Amino acid sequence: MTREQYILATQQNNLPRTENPQFYPVGIYGWRKRCLYFFVLLLLVTMIVNLAMTIWILKVMNFTVDGMGNLRVTKKGIRLEGVSEFLLPLYVKEIHSRKDSPLVLQSDRNVTVNARNHMGQLTGQLTVGADAVEAQCKRFEVRANEGGKLLFSADEDEIIIGADRLKVTGTEGAVFGHSVETPHIRAEPSQDLKLESPTRSLIMEAPRGVQVSAAAGDLKATCRKELHLQSTEGEIFLNADTIRLGNLPMGSFSSSSPSSSAPRQTIYEVCVCPSGKLYLSPAGAGSTCQSSSNICLWS
């Protein structure tokens, strides 16, 4: 080492040192510290408000160990007391009301009850609306409360009314578009029974006979064209004190000369035998209506 290098090294080590060195503190100070305290205070206030709101909701909704408000969870299911409102679909197995109160389902528009199978397909639907009650199913039945007797049944093929008595109280009666099969039709004791077909024919058929009876009134059959009383195997029996055939046309017998070209007009008389049988007899001087008995035996 040269002399100059030694002198320079000795001068650098003998330099005066500063007595007050600068130190940089470690931590959060100033505005950062104030912001941190503010956020901590805001978080504490938010937690207190949330806790207060939670306690208030628990108190207002009446939360208990068994349920919430009018909702109680029991071993048999869920029990609702008072008026309950459902905003979304409700899926339940059974709905029962209390023993001393009815079950009321209410809606602003309509109430629809759907039944589906295990695949989710709609098998039955009951809709109660403001204008009508509609049921869509394969078979609709109405049964009595006691005994389960069938009162009404309807399907695609037939409609069955199982009541002992079907009463129609409308002033216009009952209108049937097709045939009606029934063993007995009668009116009220003080009312008239009227069977009418305004535009078509009225046919009454029975395998063993048709009986029309008016115990305390008159029996009247009116038609526009023809009235047929037909018995295929038996007889038509008219039993009355007086049998009248009114508005029968009366003809006059006139003999025409052989040279006349006009056809001869033959007029017959309706004769009644003592047995009640009817026969026709030529009218004129040789009428046998009064004295002929062999014709009665012939008929």
Supply the key terms:
three-stranded antiparallel sheet, alpha+beta, 299 residues, 3 helices, disordered C terminus
Write up what this structure looks like:
By secondary structure, the protein is of the alpha+beta class. Helix content is about 15%, strand content about 15%. The chain has 3 helices and 11 strands; from the N terminus they run ααβββββββββββα. It has helices at about 5-15, 30-60, 295-299; strands spanning about 65-70, 70-75, 80, 110-115, 120-130, 135, 140-145, 150-155, 160, 270, 280. It has a 3-stranded antiparallel beta sheet with strand order 1-2-3, with no helix packed on it. The protein is rod-shaped and about 190 Å long. The model is unreliable at about 290-299 (pLDDT under 50).
Topology:
Blueprint: H1 3-13, H2 31-60, E1 67-68, E2 71-73, E3 78-80, E4 111-116, E5 122-128, E6 133-136, E7 140-143, E8 150-154, E9 159-161, E10 268-272, E11 278-282, H3 294-298
Antiparallel strand pairs: 1-2, 2-3, 4-5, 5-6, 7-8, 8-9, 10-11
The largest pleated sheet is described as: 3 strands, antiparallel
Shape: rod-shaped
Q: Roughly how much helix do the residues carry, as a percent range? A: 10-25%
How much strand?
A: 15-25%
Number of helices: 3
Spatial order of the strands forming the largest sheet: 1-2-3
What is the number of beta strands? 11
| Sheet/helix structural class | alpha+beta
Distance separating the two termini: 179 Å
Q: Nearest-angstrom radius of gyration? A: 53 Å
**Unreliable runs, pLDDT <50, ≥5 residues?**
292-299
List the helices and strands in order.
HHEEEEEEEEEEEH
Rounded average pLDDT:
76
